[in-house]
């Protein structure tokens, strides 16, 4: 998978006010000094309220750290109190936005149709959706993880064009592994990531299948990332808890060293 540059993305969830965000990104940047940014792309996903501060820091210090948002409104503008739109995120220089994270699906009732609308809203604003897919424990126990996750992919990509699909990033995140300390085995991750890649080929083209980065997420830490990244269809990690400490997150970015 030499063509697919590994991506390590930190989902901060509901952590860090904008002062804390600045301190964390500065610390990360300091520790990443001299790192090989050709070896891995680094992205942080702070809460909305920290995006402007992170933008100022990244632009001002020309940091090789990308950033994005954790959510996007499916609407461009209008009477949608509390929402943040794609154009607003684009203006803040966001390169990425999460769509379909299991916490949004669970706590905010986001179904495949909503996720699909958010994926399209991201593409419409030249923001790369980081599309999160994955099965819960019951589905895993029944052995239906591939069918479930592939169906989520189909739902999220309705009406998405070939050109768009080739800019997509997918994160396979088994829900039972998120924030639980229970990481999927490298083989578990590979099984579903490979199936998602095959499906991209069926929905789009061999190029889309070959070029799309598929990350694993779920209790990734510095002591388990290497085994997961060694799998041929895993192109990076979406990291929650371990992205909140600069030292640990930097170790993840430097997983090859
Ligand atoms: C996540 O929030 O996407 C995630 C994978 O969390 P954690 O790394 O804490 O399991």
TrEMBL record:
EC class (word): isomerase
A GO BP annotation: gluconeogenesis
GO-annotated molecular function: triose-phosphate isomerase activity
Location of the protein in the cell: Cytoplasm
GO cellular component terms given for this protein: cytosol
Highest taxon of the lineage: Bacteria
Subunit note: Homodimer.
Protein name, as recorded: Triosephosphate isomerase
Record organism: Spinactinospora alkalitolerans
Origin organism lineage: Bacteria, Bacillati, Actinomycetota, Actinomycetes, Streptosporangiales
């Amino acid at each position: 998978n030499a063509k697919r540059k590994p991506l390590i993305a930190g989902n901060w969830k509901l952590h860090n006010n904008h002062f804390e965000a600045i301190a964390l990104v500065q610390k990360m940047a300091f520790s990443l000094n001299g790192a090989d940014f050709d070896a891995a792309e680094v992205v942080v996903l702070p809460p909305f309220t920290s995006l402007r501060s992170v933008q100022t820091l990244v632009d001002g210090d020309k940091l090789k750290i990308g950033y994005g948002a954790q959510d996007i409104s499916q609407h461009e503008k209008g009477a949608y109190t509390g929402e943040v739109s794609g154009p607003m995120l684009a203006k803040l220089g966001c390169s990425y936005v999460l769509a379909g994270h299991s916490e949004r699906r669970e706590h905010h009732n986001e179904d495949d149709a909503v996720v699909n609308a958010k994926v399209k809203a991201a593409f419409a604003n030249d923001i790369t959706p980081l599309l999160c897919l994955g099965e819960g424990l019951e589905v895993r126990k029944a052995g239906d993880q591939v069918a479930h996750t592939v169906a989520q992919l189909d739902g999220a990509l309705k009406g998405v064009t070939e050109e768009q699909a080739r800019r997509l990033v997918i994160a396979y995140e088994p829900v039972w592994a998120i924030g639980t300390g229970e990481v999927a085995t490298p083989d578990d991750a590979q099984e579903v990531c490979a199936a998602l890649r095959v499906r991209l080929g069926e929905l789009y083209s061999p190029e889309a299948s070959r070029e799309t980065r598929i990350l694993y997420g779920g209790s990734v830490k510095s002591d388990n990332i290497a085994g997961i990244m060694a799998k041929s269809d895993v192109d990076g990690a979406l990291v929650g808890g371990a992205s909140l400490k600069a030292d640990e997150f930097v170790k993840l970015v430097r997983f090859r060293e």
